[in-house]
Write a structure and sequence with these properties.
The strands form two sheets. The chain has a four-stranded antiparallel beta sheet, with no helix packed on it. It has a two-stranded antiparallel sheet with strand order 3-4. The N and C termini lie far apart (about 40 Å). The chain has one domain. Strand 5 and strand 6 form a beta hairpin. The radius of gyration is 15 Å and the shape is elongated. The protein is mostly beta strands.
């Protein structure tokens, strides 16, 4: 969601280790967001995506979500970050 405009964002990306950018599918139904924001224009603000970990080194990595706002056309990093571990068997 585009915070300042309280409207759907332009797009969303995921960054792995602050370098590798993975475009997400943006605009999937998330009616709970529209419900809590009391704005039906925010129904389709969900996102999803997949990516392989084959080219990542074993060990811990960091995942960040970036929202590209419609007004500014620049990414804004979300406050939350996830860490994950790649293990080879």
């Amino acid at each position: 969601m585009d915070g300042p405009r309280e409207a759907p964002a332009l797009r969303m990306d995921v960054l792995v280790d602050s370098v590798r950018r993975i475009p997400m599918r943006y605009g999937e139904p998330r009616p709970v967001i529209a419900y809590y924001q009391t704005d039906v224009s925010l129904t389709d603000v969900g996102f999803s995506g997949t990516s392989s970990t084959a080219d990542l080194a074993p060990g811990r990595h960091r995942l960040e979500i970036e929202v590209v706002e419609r007004d500014f056309k620049r990414p804004v990093a979300a406050d939350d970050r996830l860490s994950f571990t790649v293990a080879r068997s």
